[in-house]
Here is the input.
Amino acid sequence: MDVADQPGADRTRSTRRPVVEAALAVAVLAVLGLLGGIAWWWVWEPSFYTVTQGQGAMLEPDLSRRFAADGWYAVIGGTLGLVSGLVLTWRLRAHRLVTLAALLVGSVLAVVLMTATGTLLGPTDTDAALAAAKEGSRVAMELEVGVPAFYLAWPVFALFGACLVLWGGTDAQPPRRHRPPGDLALDAWVPGARHVGRGGHDDVRART
Here is the structure.
């Protein structure tokens, strides 16, 4: 490769790398969102309505589990958000602004995918199931988030993990530029160039 073309190629590569890293971070968060939705559905224990005189009534044991879906959603989303914020920021900390933007966008996408996955895997529409149920049968309550504030668990904990890494002073050092060997050879014969010799003394080399 021509030496004159190398700086341009390096600039193109350095500009493209943050975009690729950001896309990779968003993809990782999307996969984690799907896994989080599966985990949310897996650990959740549904509450049941009992059909009595054409209406659904919830007994005491089921009432105590009614808001468990919100709690598990916050725990799973907050844990995955914190871990993803720590790991992704530590791996991609060379470009702070791009990493934070990718982390925020990916966290929102993860919340959407986690909610949609858990809802699809959970029971169907409770109202329609109650309307078609017979007297004395039990109908499971659908899996959903009752408190909208819990949707923020993943993004908030992800940004908190990112701040822990960035404030910890673990920024990656930028790569050094490699100069062609010819430039180093010419520097040794530049008139008036100062070179540090052995023992800490400066030598002056001048071309005669």
Q: What stands out?
A: Strands lie at 48-52, 55-57, 138-140, 193-196, 202-205. Residues 47 and 65 are 6 Å apart (CA to CA). Confidence is low (pLDDT under 50) at residues 1-5, 183-191, 193-208.
